[in-house]
Amino acid sequence: MQRPAKGKTPRRPPLKKTSHTQKDPVGVYCRIRPLGATDEECCIEMISSTTIQLHAPDGIKANRNGEYKETQYSFKKVFGIQTSQIELFEDVAKPLVDDLIHCKNGLLFTYGVTGSGKTFTMTGSPGEGGLLPRSLDMLFNSIGPLQAKRFVFRTDDKNGMEIQGQVDALLERQKRESNQQSTVPKTPQKPDPEFADMISPEEACKCEGVDEDSCYSVFVSYIEIYNNYIYDLLEDTPIDPIRPKPPQSKILREDQNHNMYVSGCTEVEVKSTVEAFEVFWRGQKKRRIADTQLNRESSRSHSVFIVKLAQAPLDADGDHILQDKNQVTVSQLCLVDLAGSERTSRTKAEGSRLREAGNINQSLMTLRTCIEVLRENQMCGTNRMVPYRDSKVTHLFKNYFDGEGKVRMVVCVNPKADDYEETMLVMRFAELTQEVEVARPVDRPICNELSRRQEEQDGSVLNQLLDSLPALPACELVDPTDEQILPRLIEVLERRHRIRQMITEQYTRTANTLKSMLQEFDGHLMAKENFIHEQRGKLGEKDKIMFNQKNEMDRLEKKSKMLEYKIDILQKTTNIYEGDKRSLQQELESREQRLQRELSERKRMEARMQGMVSDTKHQWEKECERRVNAKQLEMQNKLWVKDEKLKQLKAIVSESNNSTTSEQQRPHHPRQAPEELPGEGPASRPREEISLAIARELLHPVTASLSPSRISPSPPRSVILSPSLHL
């Protein structure tokens, strides 16, 4: 068997355009908000109820050499700074609510730069309710007495609607009431001041022409598109202070009718305006807002509030809803508050704010691109693919641009001069959007099929009853005394009368039998109700036991989560310690290896140095020995010379001693002065002193040559002198 090739989801085949298809342009309205201060420069002037004019500020003219000119833009209607919320609602949103009640879809979104009043236009403030609360108020004022009981309608997981039986709906209502009694305090709660005074009773309105043979139910959901991810603002996530979980993003799916919807989105059934707005405000508090340089409470995401209206025909008696899923009609109204486009150079956004601004601008650019492609396809006859899938905003609402409902856009502008360039881009986009035409939705009336079938059945039974009676004879009565026609006519009438009496008796017997059966059924029903009452009592006891067990399970789960958290912390600490241990072991091993390398290197260096020292020592020993031998030889030569000189000196000394001795042996003549010998005088030294001086001079170079400073650093060696040196 050959596997099918994988690929992208096939696109929905385009509908064949017929000549009678009617189209309407996208309704674009403009609302001008008041200036924040009276001394601010204004760049927008309202020319008429449908036209505004932009004036370039003086600073921009000076910088751009006056190339900006005054430009005019036209809209379906322009609302000035004095326009009230009720006036805006009457022209913009009221027709969409009327279409919603008459089974038509609608899309309304606000568009503009940051700080232009989009959220105020959509939501409003206490005393000045916006488009959203007024739409809810008009819806419930119109269908209030025609609403079904809770849980009769139930949403499925595929963007459809089902009808439950009376018993199942009753059980769900009782279960919800028991849960509310166990969780909600008995003291009556005061309405939230945020929406208590949104709409005054004088401004309430309702739709005309509501089908009273149908039953209605309203479901609301609230999502936001943040960083091109879809989040459910009504999702009840359990609060875990130990390990808080981030919200899970949702995905878009396509139902069997090729309509886009958010899978797994919470849809809450509401029965009044206050309840619906409470649900809205619960989600609004979860919406992401932040403080920027241009707006103190700037929306950082696109919010979508979806109102679904389910309606189904009643039975012939008008007491119960027709249990036929095919007869259920669902229409929806999407109220979208788009985040404002902004320039990061003006908002000074950094970090996550910069990323948010980039995603906001990217999604708005994708919306602009889709509008441009739609316009080009319609005006030029091209068949370019519209890039709906490039952004979650355009992908979610692509069915509206394909003709599934009316599209309205409210362009909010701030007239201050600082927003001139951004406002000009918004005006160009609005002008482009007005040229796009959307196919007019087809009316989907609800017919009371059961009533028609019941009427046909009653008519057929009456005809059968008339056919069972004897037919009247074909005769013409002229004379009141006619004895032929009158007896036959009387006979036929008597027969019909007898048959009628028989039918009446049979009907009476059948009625009595049916009455007894009904009484028996009533008895059985009472017994069943008593049994159900007993079972409810037992069920209440079981619910209490289950509630206690659930509390115990919650306590144990919290304890288990706490222990898991501690185990997780210990595991992380152990992992950190093990990582530190491994890193320290690795560092220790690396240091030991480095130390071993250093030790081995040191040993090699020591061996090398020892070899070098031994070689150097051996060389120096040889050199010293050579020098000592040379010095000894030189000294021996010198000593030999000195010995010869000493011998000569000795000979001279001995000769002088002999001459001195002989001189002393001569007779002494005291009176006669001795004669002076030749070479001797009174100043001459004795010969012995001269000899000693000569000996010292001869020995001085020898002792100087043997001094420590003249000896090399080699080991000391003994010098052998001849005995002639010892005097």
From TrEMBL:
Organism: Oncorhynchus tshawytscha
Cited PANTHER family: KINESIN-LIKE PROTEIN KIF23, KINESIN-RELATED
Name of the protein in question: Kinesin-like protein
Subcellular location per the Swiss-Prot or TrEMBL entry: Cytoplasm, Cytoskeleton
Compositional bias segments (type: Polar residues): 655-664
GO cellular component, one term: microtubule
Keyword Nucleotide-binding: yes
A Pfam family recorded for this sequence: Kinesin
List of residues binding ATP: 112-119
Coiled coil regions in record: 546-608
GO BP terms, alphabetized: microtubule-based movement; mitotic spindle midzone assembly
The Kinesin motor domain, residue ranges: 25-436
Similarity comment: family membership: Belongs to the TRAFAC class myosin-kinesin ATPase superfamily. Kinesin family.
Keywords in alphabetical order: ATP-binding, Coiled coil, Cytoplasm, Cytoskeleton, Microtubule, Motor protein, Nucleotide-binding
InterPro entries in the record: Kinesin-like_fam, Kinesin_motor_CS, Kinesin_motor_dom, Kinesin_motor_dom_sf, P-loop_NTPase
Keyword Cytoplasm set for record: yes
Location of the region described as Disordered in the Swiss-Prot/TrEMBL record: 1-22, 175-194, 655-692, 705-727
Ranges of Basic residues composition bias in the record: 1-20
GO molecular function, one term: microtubule motor activity
